[in-house]
Specification:
Length: 137
């Protein structure tokens, strides 16, 4: 990786953690729910057919990736999405998209500059006289 990183650019380790965290449907759903609004871990756990501890572990992976922020309020633990990290991950995907679009554009230019090869006649273009008789001649 380039030694110089923009302030908002993800490091390789951050990129790995973000995409590993998003590799599971449950974690993507937890992230979606916490984007919609702050949720208690208890409320999140009630939405899934798994143990409270399993949901806590999923939240821990999201937190380690920087995608959610957990805070205490009395006895409750509340979770909310971190829009900063989500924006940084989005910026990375946007850069990848721009790179691929530029490659496709260059490929389109190269293909357009190529002369068209002569086309061979399609077998269905032959006249009926060229076809063998189906009656068993």
């Amino acid at each position: 990786m380039v030694a110089y990183l923009e302030a908002s650019e993800l490091t390789d380790d951050e990129t790995d953690r973000v995409f590993q965290a998003l590799a599971t449907a449950t974690r993507r759903d937890i992230l979606r729910r916490t984007i919609e609004g702050e949720q208690s871990i208890s409320a999140l756990a009630s939405a899934y057919d798994m143990s409270f501890t399993a949901v806590q572990k999923h939240i821990g992976v999201l937190e380690a990736a920087g995608l959610v922020i957990k805070r205490a309020e009395g006895r409750e633990r509340l979770v909310r999405a971190d829009p900063t990290m989500i924006a940084r991950a989005r910026a990375l995907l946007t850069r990848y998209e721009e790179l691929w679009r530029a490659r496709i554009d260059r490929l389109d230019i190269l293909l357009a500059a190529q002369p068209s090869p002569p086309s061979a006649p399609h077998p269905s273009d032959k006249s009926r006289e060229d076809k063998p008789s189906e009656e068993g001649d």
